[in-house]
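Marked as duplicate of an earlier ticket. Keeping the data here for the record.
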Amino acid sequence: MGGRRISRRSIVLACVLLLGIFSQGCSSYSVKRVSLDTEGGVTSRWTDTDARLTAETLIKKAMDSNWFSDFRNTHDRKAVIVLGQMVNRSDQDINTRIFLNHFQDALINSGKVVFVAGEDYARKQAEAERKYQLGHARSSTVHGPGQQTGADFLLTGSINSYVASRGDKEVRFYETHLKAIDLTTNEIIWSAEYRVKKIAHASGGSF
């Protein structure tokens, strides 16, 4: 054979050099961690900042109300609450469960109320554990059916939105509403809302 034989080592070295050349021409990707207080972007759409401000405001309104203390004074114990559904009636895909979880955590940490599990997955897991205990645990440690704490109040709510646009201007209005329902009487014993109004201008692009 007239041509020289190319060694395996030379081929590997050439591939490494080519990879280096191609990687320099590709766009880089980076991730930056920011504070939770950082604004989620200049947009009229619902952002993480809107969710945080809404949760903080409604939590404060709940803390400042007297329905917790009224119940405790009447029944000599803390009120028991279960989280219901928060209906998203806005024009965006908003994870309302995250908002409700923040609300629940704040009230639990306040020491004013007690929450019981309301999500289907949590209840199913608890039920499965009780069944396991009935068949495997010592009788003195079994937590069987019929011993669970019932809720006094159901916490539920909704998020609504209204959008209006003309030319390069768009206005979005969000209303988040929460209410606590007495599960004995079906009366609404507490309700509160928080509104967000956002105006965006586009100089030729979309909102």
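See parent ticket for discussion. The two ends are 67 Å apart (CA to CA).
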